[in-house]
From TrEMBL:
Participates in both transcription termination and antitermination. Transmembrane segments: none annotated. Keywords: Cytoplasm, Elongation factor, Protein biosynthesis, RNA-binding, Transcription, Transcription antitermination, Transcription regulation, Transcription termination. Gene3D superfamilies: 3.30.300.20, Nucleic acid-binding proteins, NusA, N-terminal domain. It is found in: Cytoplasm. GO terms for cellular component: cytosol. NCBIfam families: NusA. Monomer. Binds directly to the core enzyme of the DNA-dependent RNA polymerase and to nascent RNA. This is Transcription termination/antitermination protein NusA. GO terms for biological process: DNA-templated transcription termination; transcription antitermination. The gene is nusA. GO terms for molecular function: DNA-binding transcription factor activity; RNA binding; translation elongation factor activity.
Amino acid sequence: MASINLIEAFQDFKDAENIDRPTMMKVVEDVFKTLLRKKYGTDDNFDVIVNAEKGDLEIVRHRTIVEDGEVEDPLAQVAYSEAIKLEPDYEVGEDLYEEIDLVDFGRRAILAAKQTLAGRISDLKKNVLAKKYEDRIGEIISAEVYQVWKKEILLLDEEGNELILPKSEQIPQDYFKKGENIRAVVTRVDLKNNNPVIILSRTSPDFLAKLLEIEVPEIFDGLITIRRIVREPGERAKVAVESYDDRIDPVGACVGMKGSRIHGIVRELKNENIDVINWTTNIQLLIQRSLTPAKITSMNLDQENKRASIFLKPDQVSLAIGKRGVNIKLASDLTEYELDVYRDTEEEDEEFDVDLEEFADEIDEWVIDALKKIGCDTARSVLRMSPTELEKRADLEKETVEDVRKILQEELERE
């Protein structure tokens, strides 16, 4: 049709391969039927014929031919004398089909229609993109780094769609350069200014779960199930697994021969330590396993308040708590119990000791809390540790450690 060319608009449709043809045709038809209604008041006697391949369309008007002087509805009927001007063979009662030249609508109306069409195409693309990634939430995808910013990274998928990896969803040790391919899990699809924003994550437990599914065929096949995952991204993770087949050792299957299966995941997660344990409904046993590599001496459970008192030998306390308290925090998250660690002094010689709380008037409360978090709840338990170890484990200044040790030593010497 010479009056208007819509190749650019239709090309937008072709670029959006996920928009199906029926949807495309319906959108174009709706846009131009709106144009017809504005000009004629109705679109009942018009057909919009779209040729998506050539990038043009036709609008055909059909009216019934009636005797001269009997035209009651000019939009649906045409006089015989007018019809034979177009084709001498027409007869009364036949339908007259006439192509409408879009130039008759006026330049402004045509431009408005093209803009509306472009807007509808854009909205469809957004909807298709949002739906595509909403269906992929929880899946791992690979994308190319396009731009690195302070608070987030912009990535492009294989179709050129933009994806966002926020700083908060990156492992602390992550460092990426433009052009690099990275893997992450799709966590959600947000809307910003009516535009879909696909958010990825490398810190989500789902990312580790999917990596395990890729590396461990038994998980993919459903023979082993992941019951719970907790993570401190880049530092440590604990994974509780269970096997539905008694012949399969779930922990061994996940770790692999000489750690072959787990090593690849550890590298992907920037050397994050991964503890794989057998899941059990026996809460005492689960707590014991979750505190690995520490060995528990005894335990008191308060199931009503979901709290457990853990007793360990002095050399096991720091292992249970872990660096910066990460191990005990993850064990607590995994078991959903509040875990309190105590030194088991039953095997030690009975000797005078003083609870740290007794020094509240001389030692700041935050310092006492820091010491208790690393398992030092009495004066002797603090003095048994070297100053360097106290500085490192409790994250205290050298001067603070010296002052605390001096106060405790003087009290024990007085007794």
